[in-house]
Design a protein that fits this description.
Strand order of the largest sheet: 1-2-3-4-5-6
Number of domains: 1
Helix content: 25-40%
Distance between the termini: 21 Å
Largest sheet: 6 strands, antiparallel
Length: 113
């Protein structure tokens, strides 16, 4: 489930990217750069990989995955794009993302308030 999505535009460089946090067994966070078609995926243990050549359409399908983001990743991204392990999130970064997930109120609950 998509928990949080933020779009950023850097004024100095005009760089646009999207950061999303997921409530998923495997996928914790993504950072997507549509102009360069680079997708960074941080997995639940903090290992972060770069997937190159991911089109905006594929990324949007990934975000919109109704059944499971993990299943969509395995079917449509893993082993389909050039991959590189880039870094591991630090403990405080992992804890911060997990806090965002824990404090998330599902949309249907927000509507009932």
């Amino acid at each position: 489930m998509l928990v949080e999505r933020k779009e950023y535009i850097e004024k100095e460089t005009n760089l646009t990217y999207v950061e999303s946090v997921f409530k998923s067994e495997n996928i914790l966070k993504t950072t997507y750069f549509p102009h360069s078609q680079r997708l960074y995926i941080a997995f639940s243990r903090g290992d972060t990989y770069l997937y190159s050549g991911v089109s905006p359409e594929i990324y949007q399908e990934f975000e919109d995955a109704a059944e499971s983001h993990g299943k969509f990743f395995h079917k449509s991204i893993k082993n389909k794009f050039p991959t590189q392990r880039t870094f591991k999130l630090l403990l405080y970064e992992l804890e911060g993302l997990r806090e965002v997930i824990e404090n998330h109120i599902p949309e249907e609950d927000e509507e009932n308030e």
